Amino acid sequence: MRFTRMYHSLRLLMLRRPAKRAAYLKKNNILGSMGDNCKWGPWLLPLYPELIRLGNNVHVHKTAKIVTHDFLNRFLKTRNPDQDFGHPEKLGCVELMDNVYISMNVTVMPDVRINKDCIISANSVVTSDIPENSLASGNPAKPVGRFDMFMALRKMSRLAEEINR
Fold it and tell me: What does the buried/exposed string (b/e) look like for 108-127 if buried means 16 or more CB atoms within 10 Å of the residue's CB?
């Protein structure tokens, strides 16, 4: 498994465009599932990529990190060997539903679902589910606005630019 992940990561390094990386991942069934019109920015594959599911029109920035596991229980066991913290490695699925944009330096933790029509702003850490039609930000990421309102503001801004020309 380690060799296969390394091989696919090297292949991703050779593909310069996120759309081509997404097409490679989809063609080789590397992620759990992937919809249409996706863009995958990261050059390295996370551990357990089969636990990642992408809907349609999902864009992940190249500096974003999607985490599907943690070794915190193993660390705690080394600190307190006589206590039971459960399985040494915790695994969790990450689901990015339709029309999701993950900005730069975002970290998505295990067992998270980002529902459709969401934008996660830069430097956010997503530790819990994000509701539909949200603009989320922060550490931990929480909804701070609405996707539909953000789109309307962008459209108005574009119209104002055209009028001022």
Answer: bbbebbbbbbbbbbeebbbe
- The tokens describing 115, both together, are 């529902």
Map tokens 């801004």 to a residue: 157
Greater confidence (24 vs 81) lies with 24
State pLDDT tens for residues 30-49.
999 999 999 999 988 888 89
- Say what the pTM is: 0.87
Alpha helices by DSSP H, listed for the chain, are 2-14, 18-27, 72-79, 147-164
Please count the other Cβ atoms lying within 10 Å of the Cβ belonging to residue 9: 15
Dihedral, CA atoms, 147, 148, 149, 155, nearest 10 degrees? 110
In angstroms, the Cα distances linking 49 to 46, 95, 163 are 6, 11, 47
Q: What's the chain's length in residues?
A: 165
pLDDT at 1 over 70: no
